[in-house]
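Troubleshooting log. The previous run stalled partway through. Resubmitting the same two chains, unchanged.
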Amino acid sequence: MNVFQTILILAFAFLAVFAETVLPASRNWLGAQVDLLPALMVFAALSSNITTVALLAVFGGVWFDSQSANPLGITILPLIAVGFPIFLRRDLILRDLPFAQFVLGAIASALVPALTILLLLNGGKQPLIGWGSLWQWIVMTAGGALMTPVIFEVFAWCDHALGYQPRSETSFRPDREIQRGRKKD
Amino acid sequence: MFKQKNYLALGAVFVVAVLILSLPPNVTSRLKLVVGSWFSPLFGLVDAAQQLPASLADNALPRRELLHQISLLRQQNQQLLAAQLQANATARENDQLHALIGWQKQAPWKLQPARVVMRDPANWWRTVQINLGSRNGMAVNMPVLTTDGLVGRISAVGATRSQVVLIGDQNCRVSARVENSTHDVGILSASGPLDPALVDLSYLTGGASLKSGQNVLTSGLGGVFPAGIPIGKIVDAQTVEYGLATEARVKLNANPGALDQVLVLTNPQMP
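Second attempt completed without errors. Output:
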């Protein structure tokens, strides 16, 4: 994993936060805004190094909170709380399977808002929660779960399109070429 | 060694988060505005993209259609001028009556139009940001409304953008008066997270005579919102606390979920 991928992940996080602030489609249709940062954290934890995971938690969290009424920095902790265990256990996870990505995306997308609200309540804030929040939680979980394999696909495409690709070896070997005609001494 | 590096990174993230969270509120809000300003170029791009179809449509509009629209606007302008004459006469009469009784003359509202540029990405807050800031004379607690009614108040001000906390958020409580014979006064607060246009009106007296469809206006109490701004209509009401109090649900006139253009009241005058 290289610096280019780290930059790409951070740029995606930046655009994801921006999109969440200006595109109210899922909020208008489903009553909740789907958060892409947990799904992105799953991707970073499974495909990148610990520095990228840490940077994504810090910058993603700060960017999200800067556009929200959340206290600045509160989203960092839920993001790292989700990303770090996945990173530690990633050798045991079948990360290339879309189903595994889906399940991890669902878990991450469910945990991040729940932990954020827990931290907000613990800090004496009054977030707007009620029975309708259950529906919002389901929408966020399902949306994040669906988006996780998509994010893997997008990054695979970016890697294929922009990253270095090793040259594939051909079966042609000059030393095994059949010489036609008489051998010249 | 590998694991140690992982835990060091975890510790570093934790320290950064705790440091940011423990900053003083004024530093945090300034930092928030600085970080938020990184998104400004993208907002500019979105603005340009949104205006492009309109400008293209303007270019493609035939001259005949434009002349027709100008004619309609002239007619409308004449009607509005006539209505303004009548309103001026009423205002003069009102001022004379105020002077006779000795009431303080009410200054006309100064409204500054603004555009909603973004919404809160978190589902548990109801805030939006508008494209006016301290450079445009915005200040904390200025009421924000639309032509339909009250929307909220400014909660934080940056140089070029301001955060508006909407009615229905836990941080925006409004003292409201029902337009009925008893002029019942209550407090508007959040109803639920799903329908942003529905809020609760609580702390009404037990004998409040509320009916569906009655108008709800700002009461002027509380020192933030001037009296008489329309808010919404009563949907239903029920007695709570063993009949000692009444609670009502209010449908807001201005739908907070579909805000685009808003007006900021820059000279809120309290009674």
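Takeaways: Residues 63-101 of chain B form the longest helix (39 residues). Chain B has four helices and twelve strands.
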